[in-house]
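STRUCTURE:
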């Protein structure tokens, strides 16, 4: 049937991913990018416009050719290829039950294997390295005090960057027992205890910015100058300012490549070095290992 691809793709995003599975906005964005690329491929290479696509065009051969196009023409690596394949696998799993008459077609796509990727070595900072970076943050400016509260919490909680971005004052419980509630991949919730110094930083920061008021409970905990959520790139920029200054003081303590995620790795390593049980580390960081 003509245009049935558009019908089922819309249902896949609006009803299945958002409604039934409740996947995160990041996953939906990633899957959306995959199908945008697929539509571009079908248009540019197969000369099939989006309004002419039907389910019969989405075959194992088409998917394999699309993945090859990503790697050969767009110079994508195996990691990106696997991410795009994951989106197509998810759609095919959905279609198995929506289009049972062509079950074999969807199972053939599901039979496409992911490619092995080279595991990168994990960068992490020593406790001294973390301290050196935090010492570079000026506390005599409002933005500096925000940056200190932000980066200290990123390390102390072992949060992913997106988890930190999504925090609101309501995510914090600053009366004993003190903790932060994080929502990770797949909207999985976990509660992470906070140290006393971190609690004081957050209390002062929230008081200064009026975030202790009930009316501000659902505002971004960390915002830019326009009051909007910080972005991943914004947090990376903030961190790199202080990383660069710390590296000038003691390059041996600061690895060449540092990202916000490195603070998460560092927290896990420091807990491990302190003799904390692996089960506990797993529970507070979820899918780190």
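SEQUENCE:
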């Amino acid at each position: 049937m003509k245009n049935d691809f558009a019908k089922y793709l819309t249902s896949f995003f609006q009803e299945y991913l958002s409604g039934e599975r409740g996947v995160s906005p990041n996953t939906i964005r990633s899957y959306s990018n995959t199908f945008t690329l697929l539509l571009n491929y079908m248009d540019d290479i197969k000369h099939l416009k989006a309004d002419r696509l039907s389910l019969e065009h989405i075959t194992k051969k088409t998917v394999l050719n699309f993945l090859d196009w990503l790697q050969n023409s767009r110079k994508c690596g195996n990691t990106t290829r696997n991410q795009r394949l994951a989106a197509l696998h998810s759609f095919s799993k959905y279609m198995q039950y929506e289009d049972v008459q062509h079950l074999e077609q969807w199972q053939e796509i599901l039979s496409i294997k992911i490619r092995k990727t080279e595991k990168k070595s994990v960068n992490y900072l020593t406790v001294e390295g973390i301290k050196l970076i935090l010492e570079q943050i000026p506390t005599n400016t409002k933005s500096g005090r925000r940056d200190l509260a932000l980066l200290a919490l990123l390390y102390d909680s072992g949060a992913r960057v997106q988890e930190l971005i999504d925090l609101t004052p309501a995510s914090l419980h600053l009366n004993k027992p003190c903790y932060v509630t994080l929502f990770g991949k797949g909207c999985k919730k976990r509660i992470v205890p906070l140290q006393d110094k971190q609690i004081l930083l957050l209390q002062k920061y929230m008081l200064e910015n009026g975030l202790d008021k009930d009316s501000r409970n659902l505002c971004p905990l960390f915002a830019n100058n326009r009051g909007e959520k910080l972005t991943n790139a914004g947090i990376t920029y903030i961190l790199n300012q202080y990383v660069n200054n710390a590296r000038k003081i003691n390059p041996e303590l600061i690895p060449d490549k540092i990202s916000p995620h490195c603070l998460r790795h560092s927290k896990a390593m420091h807990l491990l070095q302190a003799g904390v049980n692996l089960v506990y580390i797993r529970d507070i960081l979820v899918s780190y290992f």
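REMARK: The domain at 127-285 is CATH 1.10.443.10 (hpI Integrase; Chain A).
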